[in-house]
Write a structure and sequence with these properties.
Layout (H helix, E strand, L loop, with lengths): L1 H38 L7 H12 L4 H12 L8 E8 L5 E8 L2 H14 L3 E2 L9 E6 L2 E6 L7 H16 L3 E6 L3
Antiparallel strand pairs: 1-2, 1-3, 2-6, 4-5
Helix pairs in contact: 1-2, 1-3
């Protein structure tokens, strides 16, 4: 009987690990596809693609998956074209949030993001409502949005914001996000 229980536990742990790994692969694959679409499939001339491939290798993504993502970006495997979208939002206590999404369905992406925000004390903002408070920088890891001013949060507000961040992390289309919390 104990062998059955041990396998049952291992099976659930493996399923959870596979799920997390799949989500990471999806995000990295989308980054590769967007980079290949924007500036071509040659990593020697496309720095954004070279960086995305390095990120894929860092998470042990199979070479075939990387090649498939590049082909999808150049139109060879064009079943669904991905688009990069930037959304601006306010979180709990007025924290500004910039959300980068890579999606093949913008209606689904904005709906999922809006639902996560409203469930956790945030709202979707208009274009330019949050972006003015951030500087855009090109770093080794990619484009980052650095806040010009920050907001100090008490413990309760920090917990609410962390819950919202966890909800955004769970969304398939959300690739990255930036906040102006201190």
């Amino acid at each position: 009987m104990s062998g059955h229980s041990k396998w049952h536990s291992i099976k659930h742990q493996k399923a959870a690990a596979d799920s997390k790994r799949g989500a990471i692969f999806t995000r990295v694959s989308r980054n590769i596809t967007i980079a290949a679409r924007d500036a071509g499939s040659d990593p020697q001339t496309n720095a954004k693609l070279r960086l995305a491939i390095e990120q894929a290798r860092a998470v042990n993504m199979p070479k075939e998956n990387i090649e498939r993502a590049i082909k999808r970006g150049t139109g060879e495997g064009a079943e669904n074209q991905l688009k990069e979208e930037i959304y601006e939002a306010y979180g709990p206590n007025g924290v500004g949030i910039i959300i980068k999404a890579i999606t093949d369905n913008t209606n689904r992406a904005v709906s999922d993001i809006r639902h996560a925000l409203s469930k956790h004390g945030g709202t979707l903002g208009e274009s330019g409502s949050v972006m003015w408070n951030f500087n855009r920088e090109t770093e080794k890891e990619g484009i980052k949005y650095i806040p010009k001013t920050t907001i100090q949060l008490d413990e309760n507000a920090k917990n609410k914001l962390q819950t919202l961040k966890n909800a955004l992390d769970e969304l398939e289309d959300v690739n990255d996000y930036f906040t102006n919390e201190a």
